[in-house]
Amino acid sequence: MATALVLQHIDVEGPGLLGAALRRRGIELRTVRIHAGEPVPARCDADALVVMGGPMGVYESDRHPHLTDELRLIEATVADGRPVIGTCLGSQLLAAALGARVYPNTRKEIGWHDVELTDAARDDALLGGAPRRFTPVHWHGDIFDLPAGAVHLAGSAITTHQAYRYGANTYGLLFHLELDRAHLDTWMTAFAAELAEVGIAPGEITGDADRRLAASAAIGTGVFDRFAALIG
Questions:
Q1: Does the active-site annotation cover 183?
Q2: List 88, 109, 161, 183, catalytic entry
Q3: Residue of 44, 138, 178, 183 with catalytic role
Q4: Which neighbouring-strand residues pair with 163?
Q5: pLDDT single digits (tens) 76-128
Q6: pLDDT digit string (tens) for 183-201?
Q7: DSSP string spanning 94-107?
Q8: Cα dihedral 58, 102, 204, 21 sign
Q9: What is the number of other CB atoms lying within 10 angstroms of the CB of residue 114?
């Protein structure tokens, strides 16, 4: 049975629809719960690596020493040629492991924001089946430069680099296609203070959330099914 190693940074940011897609293909998930004190492995002995989101910054290794271990693990896994996908913080860690700069944006991008695919995404193995423009959930304050040698796949009005591919099977997605309603409801409680800080009313995100999530999930299911097909 093929396996995927999942790095989870916080209990409310699990693999969601991404994990469901992997399981549908018979891929076993082996989750490292970093928030529970589980150590980051020195090497990835699974068939793929999945790096989830979290509230910390890539540049905060002094407060979160595991980030340094993650960067080493990601770099080694990419070098081994195994499929890698990172979402939100995961995409930032991947960018940093590939030598790109990660830094705070001038404003946080939280809520429903349009993403537009680039021309290069038309024939991409994951995003090629997605519509040219769609509206997923975003929840980040940090952004990254495009890693050298990577292909720019998507951007938004606030953030130039929203998705990229490195090589044939390594992907960073800053937005959240893995999110389902249970995840969203949990986030509204867990990150309520952050919403208040940036002046976003909860209703701006939860209003019409079921319809928006259904549309996002339809895209995410296809994207993650195609990532699962790269494994094994």
A1: no
A2: 88
A3: 178
A4: 154, 173
A5: 999 999 999 999 999 999 999 999 999 999 999 999 999 999 999 999 999 99
A6: 999 999 999 999 999 999 9
A7: HHHHTT--EEEEEE
A8: negative
A9: 13
**Residue 155 tokens, joined:** 């951007």
List strand residue ranges (DSSP E) for 128-211, in order: 133-134, 137-144, 151-155, 163-166, 170-173
Angle at 94 between CA 92 and CA 99, to 5 degrees: 95
Q: Is 109 annotated as catalytic?
A: no
**Domains along the sequence of the chain with CATH:** 3-228 (3.40.50.880)
Residue 86's φ and ψ, nearest 5 degrees, are: -125, 135
Residues 150, 230, 79, 54, CA torsion sign: positive
The position carrying tokens 């992997």 is 22
Judge whether 88 counts as a catalytic residue. yes
Report the greatest alpha carbon distance in the chain.
Answer: 47
